[in-house]
Amino acid sequence: MQYQEAYSFLIKKLETGLPAYLSYHNAQHTKNVINAAEQLAVSENISQEDLVLLKTAALFHDAGFLQHHNNHEELSCRLAQKYLPGFEYSDEQVDKICRAIMATKIPQTPVDKLGELLCDADLYYLGTNQYQEYADKLRQELKKTGLVKTETDWELLQVEFLSNHRYFTQTAVKELEPQKQKVLEKLKSKIDSSIVVKHKSSTAEIVEDVVSTLLGVLFAGVALKLFLVPNHFFDGGVTGVSLLIHEIYHFNLGLVILLLNLPLIAIGYFTVGRKFAYRTLISVILLGVCLLLIPDYALTADKLLISIFGGVFLGIGIGLIMRAGAALDGIEVLALYTLKRTSFTITEIILGINIIIFIIAAFNFGVETALYSILTYFTATRTIDYVVEGLQAFTGVTIVSSKSEVIKYQLVNKLGRGITVYKGERGFLPGKFEISHDCDIIFTVITRLELRKLKNLVHEVDPKAFVFASTIKEASGGVINRRNQH
User: Fold this and answer.
1) What is the spatial distance between Cα 163 and Cα 231, in angstroms, rounded to a whole number?
2) How do residues 346-368 score in pLDDT, each as one tens digit?
3) DSSP string, 331-377
4) Domain residue spans in the chain?
5) Does the predicted TM-score (pTM) go above 0.85?
6) Which of 100, 123, 342, 376 gives 20 to 30 Å between its CA and that of 359?
């Protein structure tokens, strides 16, 4: 094997024949890989013949860039097969060299020691202090070839690549892996700091939040002092517990609500966020002040009206405060805290707490009062849903039709909605399982008020279209109505 002759022949071609935009995959990179391969080979104690084969594989591993940057490994092998026999390499030796070269194709897949050594030598720089220097060269090259467009694209690509990469030889794992992990952690920290965007509330948003909070407190205060408290009615959650304590021990209702919410606000500070905790504390304090100012006065003695309108007013109040990014009842925070320590869902936890409240109410104030209080709670819950989600709650609709092109046009241009199209197959009917056809599966998000209009539109185009809808609790972006996020 005439390695030195082969080296002189190919290095000259690489130095003069590679495109100028290859700032990373150039002749210097090939020389670096050869040097790294030699260092690893010494530590791994391979034979002299294998060392020559390894250096030759390192020499030719990027020779394919002389022809094109796509599939350069295959092109490199073809060049090795073309030139190496002229430097007294046997067919078997050329095959070993090509196998090692192909192992460097990402993701790396070495099948022998030679391949492992070449793979580690090829990406030797990842675990050295020269990482940034060579990474910058590679980024410039990928930008020229159109594979990377922005700095963020590059950083995300590097994090993914480094996370999936592994060294194969014991020497590389011991000497290079620790430094590579430091580089990875540094990149992750940089990305985390760059993608965190702090939302600054505009003056209009601040005014909207303040108005929502004040109105929410007022509605909740009216519900409690003019409907529920004078008629000894109850609600669920922390408000329900506060009403029970007030009725049984005659403590000040506003103070009880504040004291019971304080530990939940503290939990919310750590589980939800600092802003949420501060806003909730302010809302609860304002409610306490409101309850002191509004006198006890029963607007009606009709228990059905008390249950319904007491629940409606209370639901409006809680809902408005939730829209302002706070809570007037910390039961959800308690449920969220308990969820992490039990196997129960949030819904089950809240239901369990409310069952206990209404059972105590039944024993102390009668079953009829407890049942009416359950109606109050149900009314308040439904009202909260309407206030927070609005009348235009979103619905996801999926449509499978043989006339999908027409339906897509109608949805976008007549209904004014954005669509997402999945590629699928339709058919597979009983008795005709072997029959199927490619089709477009259309998905769109609409308000529930538009659902009938959409169904009629689809039916006009294809009466046999398969349409199904599902409720979407939260949606943002696209061409749907947006609500402020807090």
Assistant:
1) 64
2) 556 677 778 888 898 888 888 99
3) HHHHHHHHHTTSS--HHHHHHHHHHHHHHHHHHHH-HHHHHHHHHHH
4) 3-195, 218-389, 394-472
5) no
6) 342
